[in-house]
Amino acid sequence: MAEQKQRISGDKLRAFIAGAFEAVAVPREDARAIAHLMAQADINGSEGHGVFRLPQYIRRIKGGAVNVRPSIRVEREMAGMALVHGDNGMGHLVMKFAAEKAIEKAKTAGVAWVGARWSNHAGPASLYATMPLAHDMIGLYMAVGSANHLPPWGGLDMLLSTNPIAVAVPAGDEPAIVLDMATTVAAYGKVKTKAQRGEMMPEGWMMDRQGQPLIDPKRASEGFLLPIGGYKGYGLAMIIGLLAGNLNGAAMGKDVVDFNNDDTTETNTGHAIIAISIEAFQDLKAFKQGMDTLIRDIRNSRRLPGVDRIRLPGEGTHTARADREKNGIPMPEALLAALDQLAAELKIGKLAR
User: Fold this and answer.
1) Which of 143, 183, 216, 259 has its Cα between 20 and 30 A from that of 160?
2) pTM: predicted TM-score of the whole model, two decimal places
C-alpha cells in the first residue's frame, strides 16, 4: 500500500527553508532566494534536490564548508562569455547570478556562455536551464556533480560524477520542452531518498565492485552508479565535466569532494549556463509555431501496442508543478521527521503542516 503523504504548500515550505538558513547566519535576502529555488525544485517534482537536501546544506554551513556571505563576482568577461567566481557561496546563489548574467549578455550577443567556479551544489539542473525561457531564450546548463559515484567505463576508481545536463526550449501554446538528466541511470539524490524511505532501488541503477546488481540504497557505498547508454554515458559525463569543471578551473576527477560525507571542505563546484536568443536566429513567432507543430506531431504519432501516450521531455514536471501549486507538495513522513529534527537543532519553528 502506497504511503499517505502530507501535502505542504509552497509558501510554508519557502518560509521554513528561509528560516533555517537565517538561523545559521545567511542574510535574509539570500536565504529567501535559496528557499525560493529549493522549494521550486520540490514543486517541479525534483524531490532529491529540494528540501530533502536542507539538513545536509545546514551541516556544511555549520562545518565551515560554505561561505554564508560570499562576494559573487565576474572574474573574466567578453561580449558573449563570463567566468563567475562564487566565493564558495551556496550554489543556488552562484547559479542565479550566472544565469542572470548569461541572459543579460545574450540580449546583445545573441548567445552567451557563463561558467562558474568556487560554487557548491545548486539543486536540479532544470532550475537554471529554464530561467532563459522567460526571456524567449533557450537555456542549457551543465555541472560537475558534488560527489564521484561513477568510475571510467570498465574501471573501479570513482573519478566521475553524475554530471547533469539540462536543456529548455520554449514553445508557443504548448509547454516548453525541458530535458533534465544525469549522465547516470539515476541521480544519486534518488538513491538517498530511497534510503531515507526504506525502499529498494530498481535493478540497473547501481552495481557492486564484483559487477553484480546492487539494489539496497543503504549499501550504496559498496558500489557505483551505472552510466546511461553504457560507455556513451561515461563519455558524456567526462565531456560535461571538462566543460563545467576543467574549463572553469573548478574541481574535476580526483579533486571532487564528496559533499555527502564531508561537512568541512570547500568543493569548488563548477557549472556552466548558456543562454541562446531565438530572435538572433529567426522570427520568434515562427519559431514558437514550429515548436508547437513539432510537439503535436510527436505527441500524436503512432504508438506501439500497449503504449497509452507519447510523452515529451518536461511533461512530467509540467504535470507535477500544476498539481503541487494547487494542492501542495507531498512530503513523506521520514522527510518530515528529519525536518522536525533539524528545526529542533536550529531552535526554529517546525515546518507548518
Assistant:
1) 216
2) 0.94
